[in-house]
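sorry for the late reply, my laptop died twice this morning and i had to redo everyting from scratch. anyway the thing you sent over, i finally got around to it. pasting the sequence first so we're on the same page, its 248 residues, then the predicted structure underneath. double check i copied it right bc i was rushing
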Amino acid sequence: MELEILRKIGLTEGEIKVYSALVELGKAPIFKVMKKSRVSSSKVYLILDKLIQKGFVSFGIENGVKNFEVTNPNSILDYVNKKKEELNKFNNDFENLIPQITANKGSFEQESAQVYIGVKGISAAFENLLKEMRKGEEYYFFSIAPDEITNESMKLFLTNWHTKRISRDVKVKGVVHPSLKSQFIKEILHKNYEVRNYEMTVPTGVIIGKNRIIIPMWGEENMCYEIVSKRVAEKYRDFFEKVWKVAK
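ok and here's the structure:
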């Protein structure tokens, strides 16, 4: 019998196995439930107890033997309706907490790191950076290493990316290797940019947003790393500004 729907209301794998076994067995003692459900004796008692508490299973004693059986299936609907009521109450209670949480939001930050594979994945990471920028704001970047400029998928991606950036009126400021300056300006950056030259080799381009760092890797398998951290982004921006001051 297909009872996977029970998983949607929060039953565990063991609870589903035991309940399914009782549906097929009807009234049965514990050893038959264990055999049918293939749940160990150390767990089956706990599972049955939980199902009894939920109202899904009942038991009776006949000739000194405890037998278990499922209750009226409508009890499951009653259980679901009760959960709905609890969730509605939680929803109402939590809505009252939202202003307090929002007021204290500045006291904590959520930090994460993510790896994106393929051009579509890189595009998603770049879009995350763009979403946190307002019109007229700017982000920073260190250019890619000179030997990476030959990657055609990278050039096409960046050309399309900067077209999107410009359409959203977001500016960009970059420290560019001297050998790449004219090529970057002509083929990729287009407008709403400011660049300076600096004889510094970076293993790969680094993009610095308001709250995230993006490190793309172009090659046989295109990928990028995204670090979401306001404090890390601030340190990268501070480093960029120091290099910017000495760049030409």
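The helical segments are 13-25, 30-37, 41-54, 74-103, 118-131, 152-167, 181-189, 230-246.
thats about all i looked at so far, will dig more tmrw
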